[in-house]
Amino acid sequence: MTAQPARRKGGGPGPASAPDVPPFTPSLVTAVFRDVTPMHVSRPAAWAAASVTRTVLTAIVDGARRAAAEEARKKLTPRDLLSAIDRNVELEVGTDWYDHSPAFRGLTGVLYDAEGAVVPSRERRGPRRPSAVAGAHRFEAGVRKLLRSRGARAVPALVRDLDGIASVFLTDLARDAAMAAREVRPAARRGDSRTIGGEDVLAAAAIRLSGDLGQLALTEAREEAGRLGIRGARAVPYASPGA
Q1: Terminus-to-terminus CA distance in the chain, angstroms?
Q2: pLDDT tens, 17-33?
Q3: CA pair distance 97, 95, nearest whole angstrom
Q4: DSSP state of 112
Q5: Which is deepest, 70, 102, 126, 168, by most CB within 10 Å?
Q6: Are 58 and 137 within 8 A, CB to CB?
Q7: Interacting residues of 145 by C-beta distance below 8 A, sequence separation 6+
Q8: Phi, psi torsion values for 191, nearest 5 degrees
Q9: pLDDT tens digits, residue range 203-241?
């Protein structure tokens, strides 16, 4: 069963809908892109990536809220995050973070070396932490703002997990967008091939996200671009991976 991210219309009490709150700023998005590519990041690309990341994190938070509500709890915990992902595979994003989180320990499988010994997770990750993990703290302010907008409170461990998932997801999105700008039909693209455009970010999102969440992310990014009068985030045909 696929749970769709909640979207409110009209007035009345309750949390604001996702498009009303921009928790991840274009400047943060641009900094993440610069961690993974020397290409220029256009304004439409920064706004599109910020919007897609917001939509994904909103869906995760809402899924965790539903899990907590079933146990009559108001404060979200990592257990609620696990429940949300278990119920909706579309929320399984930023998975490189899982090896760095106690909440996901035991869910990423056990790796053995050639002699049959268990390889500690810190050795699987290599000698240094990926930039997406090292830079996860940059997302804390945005995550807390998003939680408030959804009427949710969370324990510090869950905030940390949401920081990490957001950082890894956006880093993956940046890499895919840069690849799209360089390799995906460059002759058919608008603008400089050395610049990542809004359409490149939407193409990356269409590849990385699936199902209803993927469609919602694209729709909200285009709506955001239209609301702000930003060009360069035109419609991208969406096909769920594996369809």
Answers
A1: 17
A2: 444 547 999 999 999 99
A3: 5
A4: B
A5: 168
A6: no
A7: 21, 23
A8: 90, -175
A9: 999 999 999 999 999 999 999 888 776 655 544 444 444
pTM for this predicted structure: 0.78
Q: Supply φ then ψ for residue 130, to 5 degrees.
A: -60, 155
According to DSSP, residue 226 is labeled H
H helix or E strand, kind and range, residue 75 = strand 75-76
In one letter, which amino acid is 142? G
Q: Taken in order 39, 42, 48, 50, is the CA torsion positive or negative?
A: positive
Grade residue 117 by pLDDT with cuts at 50, 70 and 90.
Answer: low
Question: Would you say 41 and 30 are in contact if contact means Cβ atoms under 8 Å apart?
Answer: yes
Read off the tokens for 74: 């108001």
What's the CA gap between 174 and 30, in Å, rounded? Answer: 9
C-alpha span between 149 and 54 (Å, rounded):
11
The SS3 of residue 107 is: coil
> Three-state SS across 155-224?
CHHHHHHHHHHHHHHHHHHHHHHHHHHHHCCHHHCCCCCCEECHHHHHHHHHHHCCHHHHHHHHHHHHHH
Q: Which residues contact 79 (CB under 8 A, 6 or more apart)?
A: 67, 103
Neighbours of 204 (CB within 10 A): 27
Question: CB-based contacts of 204: which residues, under 8 Å, 6+ apart?
Answer: 173, 174, 176, 177, 179, 180
